[in-house]
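[09:14] KT: can someone run the structure on this one? pasting the chain below
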Amino acid sequence: MEKLIILRMFFCFPLVGLLVPDAGILLSNFPGKVPVIHVVIEVALLVCIALCTAAIAYGKKRNQDRTNEASFS
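[09:31] RB: done, structure tokens below
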């Protein structure tokens, strides 16, 4: 489970690294465009983060259910 948490954390680093310059382009008065490849990479990273988060939540719920079953026995 710790490996998924670390993987999710490392997916966040490049996402932030891409979002900061893209936000700067969008917020500045310079009429620049965000590269399409940046958008594709950002969406892919968000999907990977969501999958890791779902796996972590499922693992925690499964462990919690196991401990509840053991306490009732």
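[09:33] KT: thanks! Residues 6 and 52 are 10 Å apart (CA to CA).
[09:34] RB: yep, looked fine to me
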